[in-house]
Amino acid sequence: MATKKTPEYDFDAWDAASEKDAIAALVPEVRHIIVGDKFVGRFADMVTVELPLKLTLDMVDELQETSDAPIDQLKHLLVKIGGEEAAAEFTSHDIAETTALASKFFEILNKVAKASLPE
To answer: Cα dist. 71→29, 33, 95 in Å?
Structure first.
């Protein structure tokens, strides 16, 4: 009868610096650019998604009614603009990548809205 060998882990050497380094190594490599009135995001596997940076107030209201979570709002926006297939492509990626790209999109959308305000 074979015994299952489990890997050896050094829990005693684990500290806050080790955790910080481990998390930094897991940060997804997502990038974005702005092309015209579109946010173009790129996942680590080079798949790109395009989202409009011009939304109506009705669309913003609809997004806010959908959920408070940026991921859910972004999925709703993807379905509305790109269809189910685009939304499925976006959501098939790692949650860390999806969250990072969603966060960047809403950050840029917020900057565009603030830049539009009269001084």
So the answer is: 18, 19, 9
